[in-house]
Write a structure and sequence with these properties.
Arc Repressor Mutant, subunit A, alpha+beta, 2 domains, Trna Endonuclease, Chain: A, domain 1, single chain, globular, 11 helices, three-stranded antiparallel β-sheet
Length: about 350
Amino acid sequence: MISNPTPQRELRSHRPQRPAPRVLNTAEHHAWLAGHLTARDRWLCRMLFEHHVLTSTQIIDIAFPSRRAANLRLRNLYQWGVVHRFQPHRDRGSHPMHYVLDTAGAVALAREDGIDPRELGYNREREIGRAFSLQLAHTVGCNGLFTALIHRALQPGTTGALTTWWSAARCGRHWGDIVTPDGYGRWREADRDIEWFIEFDFGTETLTRLARKLARYERLAENTGITTPVLVWLPTAAREANARRAFADALRALNRPDRVPVATTSGETTDDPLDMAAPRWRRVEDTRTTGRVRLTELPVLWPELPASPPLSEPRPAPAAAGRVEVAPPSPMPPPAPAGR
């Protein structure tokens, strides 16, 4: 079940819980893991490396048939040093456990790709430090938009699938000299690809600053020759209404507003605030109170927009000194192993 994104003030983490007994991080242990990590375990390592932090609820939705199966496997992965976990503080009730990649998982990922672990760019202190990050709620909420799509794609009878999910960090390495979206996604259904950039607004920046990003998206479209819809998620209906006015003003100031198709939604639009596939997206230029469409119906909002071209990286993403760029993981998990 996808939960409502939590305000950042409720995600200020206490010191991580006292760890359970764990194995030593040695070369012998890494060799032992080679025979014990499943394809799903390795995929989860790649997902955590790409997207930094996933909650236990999100992991259950995208990779496990039940909470019990997930808890048993995640406990093993934690004790083996493959993942690390923490639970943010909450005044009432409790948050789900949050997971990040740990050292043994990073080593397994690097070795699988034939990379020296030192070239991976992994930093354990940085990953565990996400427990105290002011961006934690934003990261978890934005990731929830995509894990909800994966969960939907895994349901019996679903014909579509999430084929691409790039993190903000990967977007920044490719387009950060112009604009850095919070994510990039592609959904494939009925032989058609639908692509989008996501801007996940948590109410922490002014609407004027948010609207200024549209000029940068116009520049990106001019530089790449590809027009990609920008979907903006806002926390409340009131903030969405105010943002739509700011976006409309910003679009009128552009030279080519047709190069920046923008649609908005809020966490109050549907019962499930993070279900991107629900009929929740409304084109900014549409002044009606109705007219929200599903993700698969986005082309209806911009009938003049060409079909999304096949995905190709605009240029080799620059890697930091001493770091090797790792390809993004497939958003869809491998088949679950029997009995796990």
